[in-house]
Amino acid sequence: MPRLTKHSISRLEQRCGVSKKNAPLVARRAFRTGITHTETHGNLHRFLDSIYLSQKKGTNMRIYGNAVFVFKEDILITVINIPDNLMNDVKELKEKKGIK
Fold it and tell me: What pTM was computed for the model?
């Protein structure tokens, strides 16, 4: 089960509208069922590369919902929203993977 930092909890509240109580559940779902960096391609892959290079701490990223969850091993560091122009790529990957 992933652990959460205070920063990640506040980012989940701010950017995803998730309460403190539900933050661990959402983080666990993102960690287990989210789309990994290696499953992406094209502009979405380049976007994740830029996040990886700018964060320098996050070794494990997952796309879940409309956001990128940045983990360091099993610790959720932050949550970043995906730009609107990349959401079609995310929808295609979700359909391919069978995620709603």
Answer: 0.92
